[in-house]
Specification:
4 strands
Length: 111
């Protein structure tokens, strides 16, 4: 078993794996988006996201996307979102979490 590598995504290959995992998760498994022939799902905030990823032998096992620029997706759902948040000067939104189905009962989220 190869060691798990936790890092911030920074290569074209890692981003491509993220887009494909997002498609499988948020289009095929959770039908939030329309299917497309490329079988890729690029998040609408991709350019502003930071992706924390878990790799094993160069294969993406899971990813967490976050961003610190407003408006957050919750700003569209809650009127006066700030009234629900603690008074911090810097906050971020965890936008997406996707893990390969066969790795969901493992310890990868602990990393």
């Amino acid at each position: 078993m190869a060691p798990l590598i936790y890092k911030i995504a920074d290569t074209d290959d890692e981003f491509e794996q993220i887009f494909r995992l997002n498609y499988r998760t948020f289009t095929e498994e959770i039908p939030q988006n329309q299917p497309n022939p490329e079988k890729r799902r690029v998040d609408k905030f991709h350019a502003e996201n930071t992706y924390l990823i878990c790799l094993e032998d160069g294969q993406l096992l899971g990813m967490l996307a976050m961003r610190d620029k407003r408006p957050f997706s919750l700003d569209e759902k809650f009127e006066n979102l700030d009234s629900y948040l603690p008074p911090f000067t810097s906050i971020c939104e965890i936008r997406l979490l996707a893990v390969e189905p066969d790795k969901r009962s493992t310890r990868i989220l602990e990393g």
